[in-house]
Amino acid sequence: MALIELQDVRRSFTVRARTGRFSRVKREVRAVDGLSFTVEAGECVGYIGPNGAGKSTTIKMLTGILVPSSGRLRVAGVDPARERVALARRIGVVFGQRTTLWWDLPLRDSFELARRIYRIPDRRYRENLGRCVELLDLAGLLDTPVRQLSLGQRMRGDLAAALLHDPQVLYLDEPTIGLDVVSKGKVREFLREVNRDRGTTVLLTTHDLTDIEQLCDRVMVIDHGRVVHDGGLDGLHAAGRSERTLVVDLAEARPPIEVAGARVVKVEGPRQWLAFPARESAAPIVAEVAARYPLVDLSVREPAIEDVIARMYARVAIG
Ligand SMILES: Nc1ncnc2c1ncn2[C@@H]1O[C@H](COP(=O)(O)OP(=O)(O)OP(=O)(O)O)[C@@H](O)[C@H]1O
């Protein structure tokens, strides 16, 4: 069953640009320009694209904040802009940059407020709260005012608040932004549980490719308000021929090292950067480097989403 459906959805804005000291011209910006896609129940879909691509405009239309200029849009069978109350019961929203929690109140009170707003039956509320508190490690934080929580703790609180009413669809906008590695891991683990075990449909906007890799089987890339890729992450890597980077700290500075399957793209003193295809395993390259050169440290870096998309375009342009 399709939980999110868009058919030729468009949304334009009229902006006034200054052309001289006293003159202005009206210009139409097509933020979303003919989007059509469906997301089936239980999917976890990455929704990515460069700045200004139209991601936020899409999410705002899906949450009923913005009305489309034209086209058809349904979320869990509901027209978002017309049936906002019905929609609110079916969706949960988490913005990494903003909190929906009450700043001066203990975390517990924000949850209690959600219980009343969504009229969550007592038993379901207790069960859902218990599960979120356990999985998100919130037990020791329930009586802490939200303003005293760290970013990672606050994000875990926001996730719990968004899920207490058992929404069918969860929108996540940069849920791991600014978090340290441990907090990112906890958030991702929780989201995996929510998607796989509870069957909650997830639409995830992020600039962190690892979020997508660890959570999504499908990724949609949008640019200039249109879908330019819809498929697996492998397909995206292949389309962009994207590369990961092995950063090696050698015991001493030396000329570029030679390793099968990778090429040195940068050298700085004893540190060298080796690029290799993102789809290949790093293990044989790491093994060969370790066997042939004295090493101090090494790490693997994922390609940035922007790089993957840029390479995808370069390939399309070349043909
Ligand atoms: N309220 C508005 N008035 C005028 N133009 C707008 C408005 N909202 C968005 N736009 C324009 O629509 C286009 C798409 O913006 P949108 O915020 O949806 O992009 P985005 O993909 O979310 O970008 P980012 O990654 O930077 O958040 C941009 O050109 C933006 O300037």
UniProtKB/TrEMBL annotation:
GO MF term (any one): ATP binding
Predominant localisation class: membrane
Annotated compartments: Cell membrane
Protein name, UniProt field: ATP-binding cassette domain-containing protein
Superkingdom as given in the UniProt entry: Bacteria
Membrane topology term: Peripheral membrane protein
Keyword annotations: Antibiotic resistance, ATP-binding, Nucleotide-binding, Transport
InterPro entries associated with the record: AAA+_ATPase, ABC_transporter-like_ATP-bd, ABC_transporter_ATP-binding, P-loop_NTPase
Domain annotation ABC transporter: ranges: 4-249
Xref: Gene3D superfamilies: P-loop containing nucleotide triphosphate hydrolases
Pfam families: ABC_tran
PANTHER family: ABC TRANSPORTER ATP-BINDING PROTEIN, ABC-TRANSPORT PROTEIN, ATP-BINDING COMPONENT
